[in-house]
Amino acid sequence: MAFLGGVVGALVLYGLLAHHVSVAVASGVLWLALAIPSAIYLPSIWSMGGTDGWGKLAAIIMSGAAIVAPFAGTLAAYTVYKLVVSAKARRKAILFLIGVIVFILLHALERWLFW
Question: For 21-86, where are the alpha helices, taking DSSP H only?
Answer without folding.
Answer: 23-46, 54-85
